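Design review, sub-item: ligand-bound model
Attendees: FS, YL, KQ
YL presented the inputs for the thiamine diphosphate complex:
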Amino acid sequence: MQKDLELELYQSMYRMRAAERAIQQEYPNNQMKTPMHMSIGEEGIVAGICTALKEKAKFYGTYRSHALYLAVTEETDGFFAELYGKVTGPAGGKAGSMHLASPDHNLIMTSAVVGTTIPVAVGGAFREKYMNTDKIAVVFFGDGAVDEGVFWESLNLACLWKLPVLFVCEDNGLAIHTPTSVRRGYDSLGKIARQYNCLVYDSFEQTDVLTIHAMAKKAYAEIQRFRMPALAIIPYYRYLEHVGVNEDFDVGYRSCDEFEQWLAKDPIALLRRRLINQNQENAVVSIEDAVNKQIFISVQKAKDAPFPRPEELYRGVYGE
Amino acid sequence: MHHSQDPKNFTGGYTVSKRIITYAQAINEALRQEMERDSSVFVYGLDVADHKGINGTTSGLAEKFPGRCLSTPLSEEALMGFGLGAAINGLRPVNVHIRVEFLLVAFNQLVNMLASARYGSNGKLSVPIVIRVLIGRGWGQGFQHSKSLQSIFAHIPGLKVIMPATPYDAKGMLIAAIRDDNPVICMEHRFLFWQEGEVPFEPYTVPLGKCSILRSGSDVTIVASSWSCVDALDAAKVLERKHNILAELINVRTIAPFDDATVNQSVRKTGHCIVVDSDWTHCGFSAEVAARVQEDCFGSLRSPVTRIGFAPTHCPTTRPMEDLYYPNAETIIRVTEKKLGLKPADLSDEKFHNYENKFKGPF
Ligand SMILES: Cc1ncc(C[n+]2csc(CCOP(=O)(O)OP(=O)(O)O)c2C)c(N)n1
Ligand SMILES: [Mg+2]
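KQ shared the predicted structure:
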């Protein structure tokens, strides 16, 4: 069982990393005309939580949506089609990289305006409580979103009305290039959140996927048991520039040393090593081969797929 | 004031000491010179002090003016109210937003507080704030990163709304806006940042609320805002070359207050009016222009006023649909040909301005 879980988590994270490596290769050809906010570095968070809460949650996220989309949908055909602006994408090419979502898979919405999906998730959680279901809402957002009033308003509301929502702050310490040290007039988000009537999970030092997976299981159980929302604060390191497919250690706002420390605990490399030590080399390699093949095919399919027809421009503004 | 070290350019005179710079450099220079002139001027907004400096428009300010160019938390509404507080107490803030969508987060403070503060205090409060907001398009910006919305801001009494379209206007209008005692929203189309033009070294002002005539003509009046001026200028050149049609091109410059006198005077001469506004047409600024023109020039009009703007839908990411969403120089040429009963010209060798490949991110 544990072995299967580890392989499943490895597959989920490997799919994210490999898909984004493919984007890095393809993007310079200028066929994916959509701004890329890459997920490289955050895979452990999204894979851990989404794998743990599959079928138990509806998900909401931000413009940094690649890993989340792949974790929830476990598919790459629609993913690449949307990035190429093709009609076979989940939004028929209308959304692109910043709004990847798939309500059919319970990835309800992602948004490019910071903080905007947080209250939406709270409304979604209200629905689950209202209808007395066992689902929760899970919303991913960055440390920058915590600067916004709407984060605090949403947290208050969820606590007040005891709504089943898991707030996940993916804390890379940066909003574009501006670090939390020059944006926050307080020391600890976790400490403040403990004054609210919610559960707080904030003892993470790395993005170890097994730890995060276990946290998500526990959070789900505690949200149901104590009838209150939860906030997870998980630090990670953004490997690439804020937007775009390249590294940016040359421009001087952060140091490469820091990156190397994080790279040493890269969640994908860590889990791979662990699986190899358990004599799972064959299983690992066959996952990697299958994923690589799947991505290669998806990219080809996306390139070959048609663009949406002109009349699509006006379709979907209003319900018919 | 230090002039350029280049002796060829240094004349010491006011209007002659010009050189070619970009629109982004013109904005940067306006901010620098106003901060030098008046210590109450300060700049704040998300990422204004980082190494990219809002496409270079705020570069160097944080180093040159310690404590007066401040990167902020992501707290647009609070920071708009903060700007009001600073302004009514005597400072001259310049607040920067890299997308109009993010300014919407501050709409409550802007509309309910800033716009009416002077009126509600019977003139005792003055709100000398400039809100710079970048607008733009391209590279799949999509429905949350490509809006313009000038008509929404221009709808509100008490707000001035400017859209400089040339480097000369960018510097002169921004300086005028900083010196103005009212909230001024300065909307800057990102593609314009790479436009080059002659700009004097010295500080100067271009009065707010005055159109300019980019090209004189007698056959048709084209009224354009912001980036649409670039498209319209491209179109006007082709119309002259291919059809011998002389379009009079009016650069609106200021959406509110709107200088309709200049437009009406031109339409009385040409009898035809086309409005090209980088925004939606429904309830948009182009509708306002059409209304004013028919009120004032009804007897002179030889055709109905034609409006050109974004397609009435959301901006899709995918390229073929994005191309349909935006009007361009060709759209203006085709509309003019139709209006004047001309056969469509062959445009297959024409090259029109586009800076899309310089810009692949939302920032
Ligand atoms: C309301 C709003 N303000 C500003 C922006 C511009 N912006 C886009 S991403 C970003 C940084 C957000 O940082 P964070 O929430 O930590 O997310 P990360 O990019 O680090 O994942 C900013 C300021 C925006 N999209 N929305
Ligand atoms: Mg961040």
